[in-house]
Design a protein that fits this description.
mainly alpha
Length: about 110
């Protein structure tokens, strides 16, 4: 928005920055700092492998199980791409099973 209260020339309400770009355009990937939000490092007594096995078997998960799966394990820093793929595959499989059991049977 310009100083007179009208939208900028690009139609946005974002204030231009010193370089002429609007604030929305100048946000980079390093603009967010995880520590800025005060997130705790997840810790559980559950192992990733046990949580994944329970998910694959269709067993109801505990909060600790979910934390392990969402964090791809709390024993390492960051997201493990191999574990992430295993979690996504288990979730997709479970979703397909649930949809199949809830869909009406088609006559044959």
């Amino acid at each position: 928005m310009t100083s007179d209260g009208t939208p900028g020339t690009d139609g946005s309400d974002a204030e231009p920055t010193d370089d002429g770009a609007s604030g929305a355009e100048s946000v980079g990937s390093d603009a967010l700092d995880a520590d800025e939000f005060g997130f705790e490092t997840p810790e559980t007594d559950q192992s990733f492998e046990n949580a994944l096995a329970k998910a694959r078997d269709g067993v109801r998960l505990t909060v600790d199980d979910a934390v392990e799966l969402l964090a791809t394990g709390t024993d390492t820093e960051g997201i493990d791409p191999v574990r992430k793929e295993a979690v996504l595959e288990a979730a997709d499989r479970r979703r397909r099973e649930e949809v199949a059991t809830r869909s009406p049977s088609s006559p044959t």
